[in-house]
Structure to design on (877 residues):
């Protein structure tokens, strides 16, 4: 009989048994029909049971049949314990779902390779350098002339591909009133053919589209954008749009899987590098460099050639740094190039969230271990309760592996049901978390579609979970001693050491989760309440553009128009808002001396800006309409302390020194209180505010303070009033200052939220597991407790008897968790802000939480123990 027929028969085992019985009866009936005595015929035929077993072994796969029988028996066992089974399945489902969701996020950001030809040969080019505070940092931005020289240096060994940082740009397919936003990326024209990509429509960019600066106004749109914006309209090829004061023609659509080179951002439009103004500026660092090695070429020799070219270019550039301080030049020469694998692409999200996602994976793994320990304890308790059943099975000939299989099949059914529910949870939770990675106005867009890696992870996770919580109870059940168990004696394997060890492990893992959650909650609280130095309430920032440079008189007309609107308190103008991430810096010289080695920051502002921002003057005055750049300057306290060593720098002079030695002189006319400039994490920077007049501008930000508390209600009115005042201007973005401030705590808010959620889950799971073990302990020692109470033991002694061993394990686990938590601080220090693992609050909170959970879990078991009636118990014995 073929293997396939035997497998099919295993699926119809009951019917097969009936057929074998009918066949046996037909043989006996045939013998009787030939005149033989029925009893003699049955005796001659032999044991019908043995005949049936032999026939079944021939006609089906024996182990598959036993597996089917064990599955049916396991399902009946689960149905007998519906509440316990449901609790185990739900706890496992939550943990498995969290692990799967974390893997989906980690895979989308860090692991999923780009859909290009041989992504393993793709590297990113980074450079290491030292900040002005001496800290080592890694940067991935380059200048285009340098890129061209490096590309020529490794020609034949590797292809260098330039890709700009994807940005949200304003563009229109019609009039200025129909402006919309899209994610745009400048790329080398040879990127698409180097990646082996084919167009879905039209053609892709080529090297010929990236030769002459400004001469190739072509664009390729992504398949996602084609589908979302144009509904897969084939007539999109040939359409034009206007962006960055230029008109571009769409020449093709990229392949469906390819969404750009930045995980977390789906690029809508690709345009040639030659169409960016930075290609002619040797001092503009504005794009990343990808290195695609030729087949068979190692990374090391390519890296050495790139380093040699990089050093030669830097030496040439340093000849123009005649006025720069020696420390600055030394740091410049200490830069070093690195090639790092970039099969998954390169993005700021990888840098900002890579370690956070890895930590998230560790937290969910700890929660999974807690859930597995919880279910393992429940399975151990059930195995102990079934010790007589297992002894009977051994007595009638069941082997050890047969008992292991019986328990493991039941565990596998629990695991598969939990995995199915966990998959649904992961399907919902991963996009939910991804939507909160970036600010609402610029959400992350991750590729979370399932693939073979997710399926393999899910299968491996389910298999591992089943082994984690099912193997120990299965081995314990299979090692039963029939003689001892059937006589009612205590089996040595029913000892509670395994369950106590699992309780200690649960307490340790729970302590770590609580400890880390506390660190992130405190970090988020301290960072979000960090003083900014200005009042963000009722502030709206209107980022405004004009197709060409406009005189400041026209900007003033718009300011006056906005100031006259109902609900507007004050209006000012600045180059950009505070805390939006932009920066303009330079080195400072005082009294004609050598420039200082550290940087000061600058910002163009109009008169009244400090009053609008509610930043008080400590000395001097505000700008006047007659103040011009260069000339007057208002500085903050950090600037005064760093460069003038005094509280009142008004009237003093300083110079901003350029790399070529040119100096721009300023006189301090006012001193402002310190305010944060770029982000919330870095210290207050020395800052000089300079007049926004008189140079014409094509972009600036109107800072509007409203008189009402709901400033967002005026956003639409303000957006439309700007072009009404002057049609040359349009608002590209509106953000409240509160939203800008909150954008600096998005990562910390997400980590605190997720860590707190997992901490609550970990405490609940640990509490349920602790209750199960205590309840089992009371049941196992019911006779002992009854005897003790019969001889007069007080309730306090009974409570201590029940809980002392468990609480000792909780204490041991908490101490182990404390050691693990303190060891983890070093790894996650980069994600923390003004908080240390050794803070008393960080140690007290997890300890008190675990103690409270242990007391709550112990209370029902203690009540059960002290309510045992010794007379009734002994009578039942």
């Amino acid at each position: 009989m073929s293997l396939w027929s035997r497998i099919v028969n295993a699926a119809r085992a009951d019917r097969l048994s009936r057929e074998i019985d009918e066949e046996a009866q037909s043989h006996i009936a045939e013998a009787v029909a030939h005149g033989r005595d029925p009893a003699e015929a049955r005796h001659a035929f032999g044991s019908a049971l043995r005949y049936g077993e032999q026939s079944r072994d021939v006609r089906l796969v024996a182990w598959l049949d036993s597996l089917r029988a064990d599955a049916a028996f396991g399902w009946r066992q689960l149905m007998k314990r519906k509440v316990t089974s449901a609790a185990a399945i739900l706890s496992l489902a939550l943990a498995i779902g969290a692990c799967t969701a974390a893997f989906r996020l980690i895979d989308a950001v860090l692991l999923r390779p780009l859909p290009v030809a041989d992504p393993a040969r793709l590297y990113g080019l980074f450079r290491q350098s030292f900040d002005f505070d001496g800290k080592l940092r890694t940067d991935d931005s380059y200048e285009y002339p340098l890129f061209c020289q490096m590309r020529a240096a490794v020609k034949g060994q590797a292809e260098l591909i330039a890709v700009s940082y994807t940005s949200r740009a304003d563009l229109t397919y019609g009039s200025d009133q129909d402006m919309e936003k899209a994610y745009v990326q400048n790329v080398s024209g040879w990127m698409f053919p180097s990646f082996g990509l084919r167009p879905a429509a039209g053609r892709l960019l080529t090297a010929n589209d990236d030769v002459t600066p400004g001469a190739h106004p072509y664009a390729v749109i992504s398949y996602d954008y084609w589908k979302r914006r144009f509904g897969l309209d084939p007539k999109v090829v040939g359409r034009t749009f206007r962006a960055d004061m230029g008109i571009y023609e769409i020449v093709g659509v990229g392949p469906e899987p390819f969404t750009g080179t930045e995980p977390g951002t789906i690029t809508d439009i690709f345009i040639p590098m030659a169409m960016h103004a930075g290609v002619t500026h040797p001092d503009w660092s504005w794009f990343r460099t990808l290195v695609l090695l030729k087949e068979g070429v190692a990374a090391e020799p390519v890296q050495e050639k790139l380093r040699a070219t990089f050093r030669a270019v830097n030496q040439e550039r340093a000849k123009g740094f005649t006025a720069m301080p020696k420390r600055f030049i030394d740091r410049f020469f200490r830069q070093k190039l690195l090639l790092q694998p970039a099969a998954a692409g390169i993005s700021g999200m990888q840098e900002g969230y890579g370690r956070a996602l890895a930590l998230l994976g560790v937290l969910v793994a700890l929660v999974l271990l807690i859930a597995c320990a919880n279910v393992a304890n429940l399975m151990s308790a059930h195995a102990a309760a079934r010790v007589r059943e297992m002894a009977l099975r051994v007595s009638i000939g069941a082997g050890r592996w047969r008992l292991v299989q019986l328990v493991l099949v039941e565990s596998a059914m629990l695991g598969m049901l939990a995995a199915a529910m966990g998959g649904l949870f992961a399907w919902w939770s991963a996009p939910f978390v991804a939507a909160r990675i970036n600010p609402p106005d610029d959400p992350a867009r991750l590729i979370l579609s399932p693939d073979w890696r997710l399926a393999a992870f899910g299968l491996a996770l389910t298999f591992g979970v089943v082994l984690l919580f099912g193997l120990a109870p299965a081995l314990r059940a299979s090692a039963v001693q029939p003689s001892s168990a059937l006589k009612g004696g205590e089996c040595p394997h029913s000892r509670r050491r395994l369950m106590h060890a699992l309780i200690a492990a649960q307490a340790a893992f729970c302590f770590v989760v609580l400890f880390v959650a506390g660190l992130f909650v405190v970090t988020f609280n301290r960072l979000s309440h960090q003083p900014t130095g200005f009042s963000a309430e009722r502030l709206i920032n209107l980022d405004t553009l004009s197709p060409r440079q406009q005189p400041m008189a026209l900007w003033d007309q718009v300011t006056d128009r906005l100031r006259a609107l109902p609900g507007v308190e004050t209006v000012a103008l600045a180059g950009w808002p505070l805390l939006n991430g932009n920066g303009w810096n330079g080195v400072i010289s005082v009294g004609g001396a050598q420039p200082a080695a550290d940087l000061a920051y600058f910002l163009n502002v109009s008169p009244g800006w400090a009053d609008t921002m509610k930043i008080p003057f400590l000395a001097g005055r505000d700008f006047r309409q007659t103040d011009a750049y260069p000339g007057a300057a208002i500085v903050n306290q950090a600037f005064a302390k760093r460069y003038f060593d005094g509280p009142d720098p008004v009237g003093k002079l300083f110079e901003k020194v350029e790399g070529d030695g040119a100096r721009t002189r300023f006189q301090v006319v006012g001193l402002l209180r310190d305010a944060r400039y770029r982000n919330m994490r870095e210290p207050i920077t020395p800052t000089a505010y300079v007049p926004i007049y008189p140079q014409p501008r094509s972009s600036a930000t109107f800072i509007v303070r409203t008189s009402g508390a709901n400033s967002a209600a005026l956003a639409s009115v303000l957006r439309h009033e700007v072009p009404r005042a002057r049609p040359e201007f349009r608002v590209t973005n509106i953000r409240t200052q509160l939203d800008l401030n909150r954008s600096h705590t998005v990562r910390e808010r997400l980590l605190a939220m997720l860590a707190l959620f997992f901490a609550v889950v970990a405490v609940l799971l640990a509490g349920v597991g602790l209750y199960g073990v205590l309840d089992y302990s009371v049941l196992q020692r019911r006779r002992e407790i009854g005897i003790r109470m019969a001889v007069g033991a007080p309730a306090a002694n009974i409570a201590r008897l029940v809980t002392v061993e468990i609480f000792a394990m909780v204490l041991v686990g908490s101490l182990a968790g404390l050691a693990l938590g303190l060891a983890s601080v070093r790894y996650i220090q980069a994600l923390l802000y003004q908080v240390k693992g050794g803070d008393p609050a960080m140690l007290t909170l997890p300890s008190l939480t675990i103690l409270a959970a242990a007391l709550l879990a112990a209370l029902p078991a203690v009540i059960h123990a002290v309510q045992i009636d010794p007379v009734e118990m002994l009578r039942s014995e």
In short: The CA atoms of residues 133 and 598 lie 8 Å apart.
